[in-house]
């Protein structure tokens, strides 16, 4: 499905063309013909960094090139690349390049370069990724909800789980599901949840969410967590989705299913559910 890879590359080209303007994640994702929610997850898996990190690093790389020119003023470069003040620009620039913007104007100084990325589909191995496509009825979950920023969620969600499982709250919700629900393309809601039992009251601090009926691609994950889950997740976005001709991404959420922990961590079983629809 080379067109899918081309869509992601079109989004990257759009970023490059607008590095000195306002970049909205919804407009970037439109170029790839997917939602902002799914685009950010796909981009992070394929590139190894978030969309926000990519834009920031490209801007700081371009800013350094301009500052190396004798006539470039720091305040002008800061504004051009989206910084509200020279101070905020100086902090970001120094963190990225290891030297201040004023030092970057010195002839012969070493600066860091962050090149534009190019996505290519490379076929490797020939290993099969196990999955099934199933129809699921509507169901309701109850859980502990927290909102995460896409740029930091990869680090923060495991902390959320650790905090939950080390507290007494694990006796209220054991953590059968991890549910991601899009908020606004930039932030999303994540629930540590179980099936909702309507004859029980919802405890204070907990919430319910209705998961609509629909079609799901279900991917089994076997082995120690979180590595097994992360490995399969990477293969879904980098192998399965680009090569899948029958289905495309549907609604803006994903679900992780967790079986009770096995005595041997290598025997743990979990699943990743991706909402899909026929092309």
Strand content: 15-25%
Tell me the name of the CATH class of the largest domain.
Alpha Beta
Span of the ends, CA to CA: 12 Å
Low-confidence stretches: none
- Taking all Cα atoms into account, the compactness measure Rg is 22 Å
Summed over residues and divided by their number, the pLDDT gives a mean of 90
CATH topology of the largest domain: Multidrug-efflux Transporter 1 Regulator Bmrr, Chain A
Instruction: Please work out how many helical segments DSSP would assign.
Output: 9
- Count up the domains: 2
What's the helical proportion of residues?
A: 25-40%
- Based on secondary structure, the structural category is alpha+beta
Structure description:
Strands 1, 2, 3, 4, 5, 6, 7, 8 and 9 form a nine-stranded antiparallel sheet that branches. It is built from nine helices and nine strands. With 279 residues, the chain is α+β, with helices and mostly antiparallel strands. It has helices at 2-17, 25-30, 36-47, 51-67, 74-80, 86-97, 101-104, 153-165, 227-243; strands spanning 132-136, 139-149, 177-182, 187-195, 207-211, 214-222, 247-249, 253-258, 269-278. Helix 3 (36-47) packs across helix 9 and helix 4 packs across helix 6 (86-97). It has two domains: 2-104, Orthogonal Bundle (Arc Repressor Mutant, subunit A), CATH 1.10.10; 132-278, Multidrug-efflux Transporter 1 Regulator Bmrr, Chain A. It is 37% helix and 23% strand. The model has no long low-confidence stretch (mean pLDDT 90).
């Amino acid at each position: 499905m080379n067109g899918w890879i081309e869509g992601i590359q079109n989004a990257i080209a759009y970023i490059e063309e607008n590095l000195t303007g306002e970049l909205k994640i919804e407009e970037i994702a439109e170029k790839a013909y997917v939602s902002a929610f799914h685009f950010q997850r796909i981009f992070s898996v394929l590139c190894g960094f978030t969309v926000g990190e990519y834009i920031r690093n490209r801007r700081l790389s371009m800013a350094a090139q301009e500052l190396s020119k004798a006539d470039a003023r720091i305040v002008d470069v800061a504004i051009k690349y989206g910084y509200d003040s020279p101070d905020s620009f100086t902090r970001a620039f120094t963190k990225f390049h290891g030297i201040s913007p004023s030092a970057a104007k010195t002839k012969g100084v070493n600066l860091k370069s962050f090149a534009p990325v190019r996505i290519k589909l490379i076929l490797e191995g020939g290993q099969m990724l196990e999955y099934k496509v199933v129809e699921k009825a509507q169901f309701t979950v109850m859980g502990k909800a927290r909102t995460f920023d896409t740029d930091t969620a990869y680090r923060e969600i495991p902390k959320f789980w650790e905090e939950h499982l080390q507290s007494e709250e694990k006796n209220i919700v054991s953590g059968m599901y991890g549910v991601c629900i899009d908020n606004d393309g930039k932030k999303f809601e994540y629930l540590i949840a179980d099936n909702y039992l309507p004859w029980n009251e919802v405890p204070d601090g907990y919430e319910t969410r209705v998961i609509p009926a629909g079609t799901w691609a279900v991917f089994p994950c076997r082995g120690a967590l979180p590595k097994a889950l992360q490995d399969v997740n990477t293969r879904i976005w980098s192998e399965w989705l680009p090569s899948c001709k029958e289905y495309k991404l549907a609604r803006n959420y994903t679900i992780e299913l967790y079986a009770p922990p096995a005595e041997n961590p290598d025997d743990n079983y979990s699943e990743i559910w991706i909402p899909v629809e026929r092309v």
